[in-house]
Amino acid sequence: MSLTISKITELAPDQESLNAANKLLKPGKWHSLTKQCDLVWGECQGSGANPYRTVFDNSNAGYKCTCPSRKFPCKHVLALMWMYVEDARPFADGEAPGWVSDWLGRRKSSDGGSAKTNPNKSSGGPKSLIAAQLTEPEKQLDPAAEAKRKAAAEKRSQSTQQSVAAGLEELQQWLGDQLRGGLAAFLNDPTPRCRTIAARLVDAKAQAMASRLDELPSRLLQVSSERRLDALLQELGRVVLLCRAWATGPNDPELARLVGSTETRESLLGLTEAPRASSTWEVVGEQVATRRDGLVSQATWLLNLEGEPRFAVLLDYFPASLGKRGSTFAIGEQFPADLVYYPARYPLRAVIAGRKTTDSSEQRERAWPTADAQPLETYREALEQAPWLGEVPLLLPSGRIAQAGSSYWWQAADQSLALPLVGRPAREIAGLTMQQTAGLWDGVSLTLLSGQSDWGRWSYDH
What we know:
Layout (H helix, E strand, L loop, with lengths): L4 H7 L3 H8 L7 E7 L2 E6 L7 E6 L4 E4 L9 H12 L5 E2 L4 H14 L17 H5 L9 H39 L1 H6 L1 H14 L3 H15 L6 H21 L4 H7 L5 H5 L6 E15 L4 E10 L6 E9 L14 E8 L8 E6 L20 H10 L6 E5 L2 E6 L2 E6 L5 E3 L12 E9 L4 E8 L2 E4 L3
Parallel strand pairs: 1-5
Antiparallel strand pairs: 1-2, 2-3, 3-4, 6-7, 6-9, 7-8, 9-10, 11-15, 12-13, 12-15, 13-14, 15-16, 16-17
Helix pairs in contact: 2-3, 6-8, 6-10, 8-9, 9-10, 10-11
């Protein structure tokens, strides 16, 4: 059996899923489109760094997608099927990757290769691919109902702001209590103290600030004991700055994100004021950490390879219960893409709006942009714009990794600058001259990401 348009329509759980799939039919929204015999797979970019992996079997309509949708098949599966049935030419022949082979093996062992059933199958009305492609007419809104809706939304927004304001006021009182009791006593027992105020902030709808305080004890444990007090003072100072800045501008998008909640990917892409950058990017680092709330955070750092040095970070979160999750990107990978940054005074966090396809003849390794001879000026300028920033990515000029006793440093080739490193680099890195180095500077120490040397590029695991 081969898929047909009518079969895809039958598989769809509802018309809404077909409408959503129609928006994903452009190959530019997919990282790759590949086939091998009856197996067809692709990767569609979602809100995080890792795209959703989608596969289906053209012989019996079996399918699988890694997205969290509760509809089966989801919009990604429907879109992949739809594109393949309408025009299979963009799908290149290739060997099935491990995740496709694993799915195929589990499927054959569990049900002998039968097609996956649709538990959310809807029989409530007709479904049509043609209807999904039609532009929906604008609904005529009742002026009175629209005014009532806006008034209710405004009332909810004001209620949320009042709740957050009360929560931040309580937070500042809590900070005063910690200072009066002595920070040494705080460092002896930080977890219950932070957990208590974090719970209060959650109740006050200041979720982002609550998470920041809840994660503070684990971050302090990663710092050497002699630096722990300074690190605590730095972080508490940033928290105070955020509280005061929010009080003067609660509607500011950046402050609302850092205190409350983050915009959705869809709303971000719809913001005309959101900064955008179209360029070739290189993956220069990845940081993975397990949080106290049971989520794993995955930060993928990108460096712009065209024009002035510019960084971006893709943040992705997934439950720790899912186990280790492989990264979509490899350190050193280069790819052209359009990025949309979250509005901020010093934009860093971004999402991929679309990846571009290039001919094999155009695929060549690009060099890093020229690093600033005074890299700490970048850090100073960033703090002038957003003093609550914790780490700022820097592109460092020629230098080497030096050792002084048990400590390690990055030292500029002209010895005009030396920055202490977080942790201990691999033995083969120590003493190696680096043409350029990418790292995160927090004002006290440097976290290495990757670098270029005469022996090739190096990456640092975190």
